[in-house]
Amino acid sequence: MATTESPTAREERAVVGDIIEALVDRRRRIASLQAEEAVLLHAAQQHALTQRNAACADNDAPDDITIRSIAAEIGAATRQSDRTIQSRMDEASTLVTRFPATLDALTSGRISRAHAAVIADAGARLTDDDARAAYETAVLPVAERETVGRLRPIARRLAEALHPTPIDERHHDARRQRRVWIHDGDDGMAELGLTGPAPLVHGVYDRLTQLARAVLDAPRPAAADDDTIMATAEPASAKAPDTRRVDQVRVDVALDLLLYGHATAEASSESIAAADAIRARIQVTIPAMSLLGAADAAADLTGYGPIDPDLARQLAGTAAGWDRLFTSPTTGAVLAIDRYRPSRDQLRMLRARDEHCRFPGCRQPLPRCDVDHTVAREHDGPTAVTNLAHLCRRHHTLKHHSAWRVRQRADGTLEWTSPTGRVHDDRPARTLVFEPPPF
After folding, report:
1. Which of 337, 237, 329, 321 is nearest to 281 (CA)?
2. Terminal-residue alpha carbon distance, the chain
3. pTM, rounded to two decimals
4. Contact 386, 410 (CB under 8 A)
5. What does the angle CA 92 – CA 173 – CA 296 come to, to the nearest 5 degrees?
6. Nearest to 220 by CA among 233, 207, 209
7. For the chain, which residues make up each domain, given as ranges?
């Protein structure tokens, strides 16, 4: 039954629409000014380099002393650290000299400075001018419609496809740089860092998250000393609520695992009876020929980007089960999926297609999402892949309790319409790397 919008509702919608349009315009203008700033910082660096190359009476001066000097002058004038200015001069010169198309997009306000930084960072190792130009052509359309968080893994994939050195060779060299380090902080704290193969590090983080949530959900035992580092040492009594954040518990269980080999203190180990059964969850996509060892095309770690195919083959060989995807050769869209062992086909299809929450810009991982009927069941919406999508709790609630509306197209794209009538498309993550078409 058609409803007539009241004049007041139209006026309120127009006010919000005007605010959004004004904000979008300001963001474009800010991006344009940031592009101008990058050009000026590059000019400052070039001037400093020219001075450095001139005859210098002080032979003991550092090679970059002229750059330090002009960075200090700019920093003093703008009330910023000269180290920050010198770092931004390097970034600006990279953008201006190596990524001209990205600079043009920033100048016109089509992308933000953060987008430009991601593009430059992912493409930094592309030394061939033609390869870099092809990379920009592929990545800019994605940057113009996706958030920085979503852009990062896609940019890595696109840069990987154009890199002249196979990923297995680069990964072999990079593995030699794996290390653990410690940095002492203030107030009795310190930082422990680790660099290692991406799938293993992501797996460690996921397992810590699962253990942390299990600890928070477990019955509360009586605690001993507040200063103990055991994961379950807080709260102070069995009845007191656990007020720690998940991040804090991640640290606690990590220290327990490293120091004691278990995620909980000995006195309360029964709070997670199945701790050893909690396993890290990662999603790796590997081309069929690479899986068979007949090719060395890079595999893909969801949320990170390209990984070594040898490591991907090891992960596939030890996995309890894995999915086979059939994708379109022109768009990359997932067309079908099967598995050796029977399982819930629709959910596997959705996991392979969505990779994260499907609200524009959201990257909440699938374990934190609900599978939502685009057209609700009570409105005769079918339980079909073309009517299902992952939504995190925040955006699931927004869909059902606000004026936001969503429609799903046949290719899996979700067409979101805001309360002011603005339309935002959210395309399945894997298809984004196919526009423009593969190289």
Report:
1. 321
2. 50
3. 0.67
4. yes
5. 100
6. 233
7. 25-164, 197-277, 320-434
